[in-house]
Automatic annotation (TrEMBL):
<dbReference type="InterPro" id="IPR001279">
    <property type="entry name" value="Metallo-B-lactamas"/>
</dbReference>
<dbReference type="InterPro" id="IPR036866">
    <property type="entry name" value="RibonucZ/Hydroxyglut_hydro"/>
</dbReference>
<dbReference type="Pfam" id="PF12706">
    <property type="entry name" value="Lactamase_B_2"/>
</dbReference>
<protein>
    <submittedName>
        <fullName>MBL fold metallo-hydrolase</fullName>
    </submittedName>
</protein>
<feature type="domain" description="Metallo-beta-lactamase">
    <location>
        <begin position="18"/>
        <end position="222"/>
    </location>
</feature>
């Protein structure tokens, strides 16, 4: 498998990166492509990386804007690209297959609310199409320990500790290689279980020791390193670090707890497992 970091900024897009988005691809003649989160601004680097029509599935770890809001732009492309039939009686191209979206319950309603705008005083309001995300996407609710197949990849969701329903995602390819994405979370047993023996652990580290005291929200570098050690992962990649945090401090915290290789995720960086 190949993992590419597309959006790595924590909490909102930074000056050098969009918000959360990662691409997992199999190294096959016809690759399986899974997009992990599609946060604010992430549709731009995603389009530079691949043809959007080649996406096998999207997984949204949770429904905070920095992890899902560019689904609105993806909906526009699905619905209004003139190459594809968008529900009108005139077929201008090939009927598009809906993209599978695995997300916490309520994702379709959440995204519809974010996209829909009342017509107000518009003099042409009668020509406005209804907002219907089911036209573009097939939503599947995530749940703790849900296991599903996308192409040649096996995925499993683990409920983790964040103020809204959030899932870490474990991805295993046909050869048994494992990539785990933490989503947003604090240190918890479910995260350790998700990351167990992973070849690569892509882990958020938005908080800093001695500065951020809230618990049940985000990991510090130290706690991310401790999870990596307890899960016996082979390599750790830290991500979702906000602009007000020094990446080297967070990496140093992690290195105090985890003795394996540690990297900082940067846009367009990639790893193969």
């Amino acid at each position: 498998m190949k993992l590419t970091a597309l959006g790595t900024a924590g909490s909102f897009p930074g000056p050098g990166s969009s918000a959360s988005c990662y691409l997992v691809e199999t190294e096959e003649e016809k690759p399986t492509r899974v997009v992990l989160d599609l946060g604010s601004g992430a549709l731009t680097p995603l389009q530079r990386a691949i043809d959007l029509d080649s996406i096998s599935a999207v997984v949204l770890s949770h429904l905070h804007p920095d992890h899902c809001m560019d689904m609105l732009g993806f909906y526009v492309r699905h619905s209004y690209d003139p190459r594809f039939f968008s529900g009108d009686v005139t077929d201008t191209g090939t009927i598009r297959t809906r993209t599978a979206v695995y997300a916490p319950a309520g994702a379709q309603e959440r995204l519809t609310r974010a996209y829909h705008t009342d017509p107000g005083k518009s003099p042409t309001a009668g020509g406005c199409e209804d907002t219907d995300f089911s036209r573009a996407f097939e939503f599947v609710d995530l749940d703790h320990r849900l296991v599903w197949q996308v192409g040649s990849l096996t995925l499993e969701a683990f409920l983790v500790d964040h103020p809204v329903e959030t899932y870490a995602v474990r991805i295993t390819d046909a050869k048994g290689s494992v990539i785990v994405y933490s989503g947003d979370t604090d240190e918890c047993e479910n995260l350790v279980e998700a990351a167990r023996d992973a070849d690569l652990f892509l882990c958020e580290a938005a908080f800093q020791e001695g500065r951020d005291s809230s618990r049940g929200v985000h990991l510090t570098g130290r706690r991310a390193g401790r999870v990596a050690t307890n899960a016996d992962v082979r390599s750790l990649v830290l991500t979702h670090i906000p602009v007000w945090t020094d990446c080297t401090i967070v990496r140093g915290e992690a290195a105090g707890e985890y003795r394996g290789p540690i990297e900082l995720a940067k846009p367009e960086a990639w790893w193969s497992v």
